[in-house]
């Protein structure tokens, strides 16, 4: 059973709002990203402590936004394996729908040899259009050696492997030098195994800030004993729902998630 998020809703509603249009003007050109894994009770304490330091993004009148994502990989799960081994450069291909606004995008995420993540995306009619009709394939072919349909030209064929759904809170600090995305209520469905898995009490916080600018949230996270911890929704979701993939380096992360249940 999913927990009741009413208390989170009430806490976030106390932050002054910032619109999507205002958020789009905040460009973190020299961005560093850090992830943290915690629990819903700790998140509630964190939100109470950081009142006065952040704005909360409002979209379609909501401060908590539902997301849906589908990830693609080849038959060897190469993207999963490269991430597990820490290989760089590496790539992920996904389609994401912002449920409130019904906007969908096909996205290509790359992490380079220096650890910088860059994302390119193109609007698509829906996730179903990508899965069933290969919408966005021209965009994929122009930027990668992958394809959704024919691999006759030597490209690597991708298939949908994993779907997730989650809720997101987005905060931006008063100086406009950082964004926080706070994801919770994660649910996974694996296209290969048919297995499902939910992490209803796990919270993934990602701090995206301009260079090494001072951050209001970092001392509060230290106060609450929340430490940096890498987390890939695709890889963790796959590890939890596909018994045929190797776990190896994800075992420590899975142990941390058991603590968050």
Structure overview:
- The protein starts with 5 loop residues before the first helix and ends with a helix.
- The chain has 261 residues and is α+β, with helices and mostly antiparallel strands.
- The strands form two sheets. Strands 1, 2, 3, 4, 5, 6, 7, 10, 11 and 12 form a ten-stranded mixed beta sheet that branches. Strands 8-9 form a two-stranded parallel sheet.
- A hairpin with a 4-residue loop joins β5 and β6.
- It is built from nine helices and twelve strands.
- α1 runs parallel beside α3.
- It has a single domain, classed as Hypothetical Protein Pfu-838710-001.
In short:
The chain is α+β, with helices and mostly antiparallel strands. Helix content is 26%, strand content 38%.
Spell out the key features of this protein:
single chain; 261 residues; alpha+beta; Hypothetical Protein Pfu-838710-001; two-stranded parallel ribbon
Share of helical residues: 25-40%
- Sketch the major β-sheet: 10 strands, mixed
In N-to-C order, the SSE pattern is HEHEHEEHEEEHHEEEEEHHH
Number of strands: 12
> What is the CATH topology?
Hypothetical Protein Pfu-838710-001
Arithmetic mean pLDDT: 89
């Amino acid at each position: 059973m999913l927990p009741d998020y009413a208390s989170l809703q009430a806490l976030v509603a106390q932050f002054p709002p910032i619109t999507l249009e205002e958020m789009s003007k905040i460009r973190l050109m020299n961005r560093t990203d850090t992830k943290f894994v915690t629990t819903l009770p700790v998140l509630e304490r964190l939100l109470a402590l950081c009142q006065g330091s952040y704005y909360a993004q409002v979209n379609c009148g909501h401060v908590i936004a539902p997301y849906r994502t589908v990830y693609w990989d080849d038959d060897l799960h190469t993207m999963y394996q490269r991430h597990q081994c820490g290989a760089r450069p590496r790539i992920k291909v996904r389609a994401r729908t912002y449920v409130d606004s019904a906007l969908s995008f096909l996205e290509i995420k790359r992490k380079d040899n220096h650890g910088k993540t860059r994302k390119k995306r193109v609007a698509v009619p829906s996730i179903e259009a990508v899965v069933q009709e290969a919408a966005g394939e021209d965009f994929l072919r122009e930027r990668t050696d992958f394809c959704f349909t024919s691999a006759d030209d030597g490209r690597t064929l991708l298939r949908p492997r994993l779907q997730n759904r989650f809720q997101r809170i987005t905060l931006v600090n008063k100086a406009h030098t950082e964004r926080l995305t706070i994801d919770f209520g994660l649910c996974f469905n694996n296209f290969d195994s048919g297995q499902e898995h939910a992490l209803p009490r796990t919270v993934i916080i990602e701090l995206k800030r301009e260079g090494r600018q001072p951050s209001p949230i970092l001392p509060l996270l230290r106060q609450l004993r929340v430490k940096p911890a890498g987390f890939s929704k695709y890889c963790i979701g796959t590890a939890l729902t596909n018994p045929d993939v190797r776990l190896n380096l994800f075992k420590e992360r899975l142990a941390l998630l058991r603590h968050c249940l």
